[in-house]
Amino acid sequence: MSNTNTYVGSKIKGLRETKNLSIEEVAESTGLSVEQINSIENDQNLPSLGPLIKIARALGVRLGTFMDDNDALGPVVTRAADRERESSISFSNGATDARKHMEYHPLAQQKAGRHMEPFIIDINPEENTDYKLSAHEGEEFIYVMQGEVEVEYGKEKYSLKEGDSIYYDSIVKHHLHGAPGKSAKILALIYIPF
Question: Which residue segment(s) compose the domain that 31 sits in?
């Protein structure tokens, strides 16, 4: 399965250049460092959703714009067999390291004008448990399809098993990861107001 990180980084760079914004201007408006923006644009690192949402806001686009292939106005059907053959997107857990613990399989990247980002996410076990919580505008719904996950949300920690779900406001600092030493598969719906 190929990785689409290259596509996302080049899309961000292309949008920034089209809008005549410098890396420094994007860094200033997002609160990210120039090094982080460079790393993302040069496909060295694809951070978690929080920094990507900040970049989308700075560029005046939806988060999904970074992953869009086509613009379908009607319904978009994603077949399981097609999803398995298509590229996934791996986000690292921090904006400056290269840890890859989640593979995102977008479910509606062809849908034009969407307000939700649906994904099937494969979560791989991580050795490093020094998680960095992040926050962004919007809401998230997580449904555990397989395995077990932990969600750190503010000062609370929730353990979710197969069949469990959680719905939360993303503005509260949070982090989602597999239970220690375990992998998982989840359905995630992310809503980001635009």
Answer: 5-191
